[in-house]
Design brief:
Radius of gyration: 17 Å
Number of domains: 1
CATH architecture: Alpha-Beta Barrel
CATH topology: TIM Barrel
Strand content: 15-25%
Shape: globular
Number of strands: 8
Strand order of the largest sheet: 1-2-3-4-5-6-7-8
Number of helices: 8
CATH class: Alpha Beta
Largest sheet: 8 strands, mixed
Structural class: alpha/beta
Helix content: 25-40%
């Protein structure tokens, strides 16, 4: 397993838990607004953390941390991800998995085997704009399958969309709301220029614009919230 980074403690990434975050490199999408280009692009890959070093750290944090967030890139690109999650669970940690939802088969198996306690799935845009927002890569069908798996309610979950100009409009958020109607949690978060983007030309929305997007989606997902304002 390639491990690109480790944040040793976070109070934000795993709701209501003290956790660490494990970063796995590589992604099958090329979203122009991605803020982790160094994780996504192979030519920018840095020295990896040995797996035994990660598990030595986790062993030393038993009863000090509640959980482990596994994020990317896209973790489900790794065929050995379920084995890694099982090892983390065996140490007594709860597991949060971040995913773009493009590998519904693996997601379904992970949920069925009880290898994660919380899933955060990125919803890139309305179905009509999904391919363009993913950098020209058509993954809508798989994303829809993954969303349906989560909405069955066998694992705690959230959906989230990072919004920005020129990709997201109130009409897009209405379409997302129609798609995910009845979702347990849905968050809208504003684009932030990390300085490590895949492309240029993206801009954050103003607070009034963010609230307009929230109004558009709340008709279908009343529990939707803005994150980070």
């Amino acid at each position: 397993m390639n491990i690109a980074g480790l944040q040793k403690m976070t109070l934000l990434d795993f709701p209501a838990r003290i956790a660490c975050t494990v970063f796995l490199p590589g992604c099958n999408l090329r979203c122009p607004f991605c803020h982790n280009a160094s994780l996504v692009l192979p030519d920018r890959e840095k020295d990896n953390i040995p797996e035994n070093e990660l598990f030595a750290f986790l062993s030393s944090r038993r009863k000090k941390l509640d959980g482990v967030c596994v994020t990317g890139g896209e973790p489900t690109l790794y065929i050995d991800l379920p084995d890694m999650l099982r090892r983390i669970k065996d140490l007594g940690f709860q597991v949060k998995l971040d995913t773009n939802g493009t590998n519904p088969g693996m997601l379904e198996q992970i949920v069925a085997d009880g290898l994660c306690d919380y899933v955060a799935m990125d919803i890139k845009n309305s179905p009509q704009k999904y391919t363009a927002t993913c950098g020209g890569i058509d993954v809508l069908e798989n994303a829809q399958k993954s969303a349906a798996i989560l909405m069955q309610g066998h694992v705690d979950y959230e959906f989230r969309t990072t919004v920005m100009h020129p990709f997201h409009t109130p009409g897009d958020l209405t379409a997302i709301g129609q798609w995910l109607q009845g979702a347990k949690r849905y968050f809208i978060q504003n684009f932030v220029d990390s300085g490590d983007l895949l492309s240029s030309g993206c801009e954050a929305l103003t607070e009034p614009e963010m609230k307009e997007l929230l109004d558009a989606v709340q008709e279908y997902i009343p529990s939707a919230k803005l994150r980070g304002l």
